[in-house]
Amino acid sequence: PYEKRNRKTLKKVEELSADCDLLFLPSFTHLDVPFLKKGISKPIVFDPLISKYMTKVFDLKTIWRYSPRAYKNFLKDKRAFKSSDLIIADTQSHKEYFCKHFGVDENKIIIVPVGVDTSEFFPENEPVEAGDKIVVGFYGTFIPLHGIDKIILAANELKERKDIRFEIYGKGFLFNKISPLAGKLGLSNIVFKGWVDYRELNNVINTMDICLGIFGDSIKTELVVPNKIFHYAACGKPIVTRDTTAIKEIFTPDRNIVLSANNPVSIAGAILHLADNPDLRTKIGQNAYNMINSEFNET
Predict the structure, then answer these.
(1) pLDDT tens digits, residue range 235-259?
(2) Handedness of CA 113, 119, 125, 126 (dihedral sign)
(3) Are 28 and 45 in contact (CB under 8 A)?
(4) Going by C-beta distance under 8 Å and a sequence separation of 6 or more, which residues neighbour residue 283?
(5) Phi and psi for 136 in degrees, rounded to 5?
(6) Structure pTM?
(7) Which of 258, 175, 219 is nearest to 50 (CA)?
(8) How many CB atoms lie within 10 A of CB 223?
């Protein structure tokens, strides 16, 4: 790491990279790519993870689409992509977005799915028993991508089912805006469990009977398969998530995942279908586990 992007830093990086074949720049280093390209002769491989422009303008909506700040973030993406010799995208859908909106040559992008380290996420030998409740679980940082408001509304659809409990882990961007919705609806079947340390996530996921993915409305939802989906699958859990092109690049509907339309009624219906069919839950979860371990295992 370096503190300033200046001539001294360029010289230092050039010296350090003398014996390297390439420079790899990880996620969120958009500004560093064009900076280093000015003074380093080695090829640059860039893993952006996200588009800053798309995330801030269309997902978080913290910047107005036609503002100078939006254009500035667009340029951060475009300059980083132009200065890269090779770009990593996590899905074909994401690759196509980069090509269409930033004019990136498709031959410049390779696809590397997120995957999962199965030494960190795996089925527990003795999972925690939830008693007579079917636990429908989710974890996340409450960003628009997650669509947690729809999860709460799905819980409202299932409020008469006393055997189903929703457990939501995490806090973040929209927590104070979204979480009061459960109180307004008078729901007793949903619990906000708060933040959980990453090291405890495997244990938490293993307490869930059904796991929930993402249900956002933004462009980003259509393009990504987030970490949580891989984590759930590595634990052998049946997953319900929004039907998108990106998710179907990795998973097969009704074989190793259950997809729903992006509305509370459809989400509730998918949950109910799994809740009432324990054998199906086992089958979907096992198929997801097998697929992840054979094709998307980082270890």
Answers:
(1) 999 999 999 999 999 999 999 999 9
(2) negative
(3) no
(4) none
(5) -105, 115
(6) 0.92
(7) 219
(8) 24
